[in-house]
Amino acid sequence: MAPHGTDPLTLEVIELIGSVVARYHDEYEQAAAEHSLTGAQARVLGLLTLEPLPMRRIAQKLKCEPSNITGIVDRLEARGLVERRPDPGDRRVKLAAATQEGRGTARQLRSSLDFAREPLAELSAEERTALRDLLRRMLGERDDDRPQD
Fold first, then answer.
1. How far apart, in Å, do the first and last CA atoms of the chain sit?
2. What number is the average pLDDT over the span 86-100?
3. How many folded domains does the chain comprise?
4. Angle at alpha carbon of residue 76, lines to 72 and 80, rounded to 5°
5. Spatial separation of the C-alpha atoms in residues 58 and 52, rounded to whole Å
6. Which of 17, 45, 85, 95 could be disulfide-bonded to 52 (CB atoms 3.0-4.6 Å)?
């Protein structure tokens, strides 16, 4: 028997995940460019449409350095897509939040991502739920990391 992780099925799944990620990344970068955004700016904007977040938390979610996030938020703020506001729970902390214009831009960006949306629409609700749960499990997400359905 092949060592754990090197059996043909596991290798095929790894290749398929890589192909999906590459195609999604390419389409996401193209959609972002159509809005004069970098992929990183689009990802931050999309995240901030869910909830206002401090820079440190954005960096954790996107797995990058907080200093990178500060520059991205600066550029989004200069375009009127994001604003900084005080954290009601801690006056020392600033939250980045999507503006109304930013939410509209993020919505347009999401609606242009046909690669992911169209194949997912062909799956039943049960299949999409199973896929979501498997992906979350692969990522090691806990219940408190998950957005509420």
1. 41
2. 94
3. 2
4. 165
5. 9
6. 95
- Could you give the C-alpha distances from 13 to 20, 93, 103, 117, in angstroms and in order? 10, 42, 34, 20
Report how far residue 46's alpha carbon sits from residue 86's, in angstroms, rounded to the nearest whole number: 20
Residue pair 69/48 in contact (Cβ under 8 Å)? The answer is: no
- Do 132 and 91 belong to one domain? no
With b for 16 or more beta-carbon neighbours within 10 A and e for fewer, the 29-39 pattern comes to: eebbeebebee
Tell me if the pTM is above 0.70: yes
C-alpha distances in angstroms, 117 versus 24, 108, 111, 112, 121? Answer: 10, 13, 8, 9, 6
C-alpha to C-alpha distance for 146 and 149, rounded to whole angstroms: 9
- Dist. CA 107–CA 125, nearest whole Å: 22
Structural domain contains residue 99: yes
Higher local confidence (pLDDT), 142 or 61: 61
